[in-house]
Write a structure and sequence with these properties.
Number of strands: 26
Oligomer: single chain
Strand order of the largest sheet: 4-3-5-2-6-7-1-10
Shape: elongated
Helix content: 25-40%
Largest sheet: 8 strands, mixed
């Protein structure tokens, strides 16, 4: 038997209580991963069991939500009078008591439904205030048939980037917030209770420079943005850094700017040995579905996308998000982050208790979801539990998002955090990032900055320069950095010949000294390669000062190694944070409630 969680029962009760005392159209705000589909299904079940004559439509903008919502009601009530109206799903039902519909399929067909009592909109932030929009046209025709129609909205983001909160809009469709579980305290309650998985947003070495990218509407001009970020060398650097920081993660999701950007990122990931599929709008629906299923089953480690996997994807296994898509929309930002907040529970634990859920998360394959934010969205827009929500008509100085960076592990934390969410390091000072945030610039000093870098792989290529004999260009890949070194098997000077001989013996090679580039490349795959380099990194051309071949990193550990050994901590409930919701059981309601 399906068992609601206490906060889901609370949300259903609050909806009924709202309609006992109010005549408006309420909003229910619930974070991604907390089970909006359960609340929708339970509410419909209670309505139809008590008032069987009611007609309900549940609308969404993507077929995945239509499937999830209808399946959830079917799991609770196998004989429920359910219909599907979606061209993509191959069904055009108008007559059942509860019809789950695609707005694209029904916005011109409102009259075919007859008298509708309740319209439930999933992802209600997608309802445009424009009179000619699909939702507005559909609702206007439904109201002509039944002026007493009630509209209920569900969303994790109850605002628009340009227009402010949904209930504050002029002539807003939604009149009240009936349930709000998206406050900071509520979000933290979900984390502490083991209902949501924490996100760990990391500052990255690579960060897009968006100078010159114009704005269009409430986001970046997409043409400008694509020209700025869709560059192969940037994408390859992003991939290298992602591999160095997230190679131990199991299921990756990459957000990129444009179809080509997503495709190229997938190609580079595949070249680097990360099985990846690009999911984008140019694919046919069935092919896209097959790719998503293959990704969920583990055939692909990573899925890249542009604007396809932002909503409607229920895949708890996602434990790494590559954020290669800058945005000005805190709404879109929170929706993308929400893909990583679902929990994966190890079997054998009591999931009806807080202790059991937290232990199941700690014992499972996903203790958190790492967010590699190459787009500076965290600094500009805030964390998922406290995003920058715009206020309509309010102008003034730009205020930075409420985050600070842990100097030990590069993790972004809420400004109020006393300890880092990742490494538990205590904050002794706060760094507030504003829009100008010049403090984030890398400061170049006159003194040598020497770092120990871990080598992930090495390539050897012939290098030719006019007037000189061919040489070998050796490239050491060290996370996001590449360090180049040149050697001359065909040296035409005593200095170059001696340097090559020293390089050969210094690397532990005991075979004959190659006397040509071709001979060198023939034996290159058998050469011993260093595990670490000591590099003068702030020189004009970063230079190698020493090589380590035994993995000891010169008898110490590199910074990257130290970070990699930080173990995920088991998150325990905060004793000072009382449960946010104490839910009564489903109650009987007056017969005159409809609606």
């Amino acid at each position: 038997m399906f068992q609601d969680r206490e906060y889901q029962t609370y949300a259903v009760n609050q909806l009924f209580r709202y309609f006992l005392d109010n005549t408006g159209n309420p909003l229910v705000l619930m974070p991604t991963g907390t089970g909006k589909s359960v609340v929708i299904a339970r509410f419909i079940l209670e309505v139809l069991l008590k008032w069987a004559s009611q007609k309900i439509i549940v609308c969404a903008h993507v077929k995945e939500l239509i499937e999830q919502n209808s399946q959830k009601l079917r799991s609770m009530w196998p004989n429920a009078p359910i219909g599907i109206n979606s061209a993509e799903l191959g069904s055009r039902d108008f007559i059942q008591s509860a019809v789950f519909a695609s707005i694209q399929s029904v916005f011109k067909s409102a009259k075919d439904f007859g008298c509708v009592n309740l319209l439930i909109i999933d992802e209600a932030h997608m309802v445009s205030p424009e009179d000619k929009s699909r939702y507005q046209r559909f609702i206007k025709e439904l109201l002509q048939i039944n002026p007493n129609l009630k509209v209920i909205g569900f969303t994790a983001t109850g605002w628009r980037t340009k227009g402010g909160h949904l209930v504050d809009e002029k002539e807003s469709l939604f009149t009240d917030v009936c349930v709000d579980m998206t406050t900071i305290d509520a979000f933290n309650w979900f984390f502490n209770q083991g209902y949501l998985c924490r996100l760990t947003p990391k500052r990255t070495q690579l960060e897009y420079d968006l100078t010159g990218v114009r704005k269009l509407g409430d986001d970046y001009n997409q043409k400008d943005l694509i020209e700025c970020v869709d560059k192969n060398e940037l994408t390859e650097a992003l991939i290298r850094e992602s591999i160095s920081k997230g190679e131990d993660r199991n299921h990756w999701l990459g957000f990129f700017s444009g179809v080509n950007h997503a495709i190229v990122a997938a190609e580079i990931l595949n070249d680097y040995g990360i099985p990846t599929v690009a999911i984008h709008s140019d694919l046919k629906s069935k092919q896209r579905d097959d790719y998503i299923d293959d990704w969920k089953r583990g055939k692909y480690k990573c899925a890249t996308n542009n604007n396809i996997l932002t909503t409607g994807i229920d895949f708890p296994g996602i434990d790494l998000i590559l954020m290669g898509r800058p945005t000005l929309s805190s709404n879109l930002w929170v929706q993308m982050l929400g893909r990583g907040t679902r929990c994966v529970y190890a079997p054998g634990f009591d999931l009806t208790t807080t202790q059991g859920r937290l232990e199941a998360i700690s014992a499972g394959p996903k203790q958190d979801c790492l967010v590699l934010d190459f787009s500076a969205n965290t600094r500009n827009l805030g964390p998922i539990n406290d995003p920058k929500i715009p206020t309509k008509g309010k102008k003034g100085p730009k205020v930075g998002a409420p985050v600070k960076e842990c100097l030990c592990c590069d993790t972004y934390n809420h400004i109020s955090a006393k300890n880092c969410i990742k490494c538990n390091e205590e904050f002794t000072f706060e760094i507030k990032f504003g829009a100008e945030a010049s403090g984030l610039d890398i400061i170049k000093a006159d003194l040598p900055q020497v770092d120990i870098l871990e080598v992930t792989h090495v390539t050897y290529r012939m290098h030719e320069k006019e007037g000189s004999p061919p040489s070998i260009k050796i490239t050491y890949y060290c996370g996001v950095l590449t360090i180049n070194e040149f050697v001359f098997p065909e040296a035409n000077s005593q200095w170059a010949a001696k340097k090559f001989a020293q390089w050969w013996s210094g690397c532990g090679h005991t075979g004959p000294l190659p006397n040509s580039v071709e001979v060198f490349l023939d034996v290159a795959e058998n050469l011993t390669t260093p595990t670490h380099l000591r590099v003068w990194v702030n020189a004009k051309y970063p230079s190698i000062m020493a090589k380590c071949f035994d993995g000891t990193a010169f008898g110490t550990q590199s910074a990257d190694k130290t970070k990699a050994q930080v173990k995920p901590i088991a998150y325990k409930p905060d004793a000072n944070l009382a449960p946010a919701y104490v839910a009564p059981p489903i109650e009987g309601f007056d017969d005159d409630i409809p609606f």
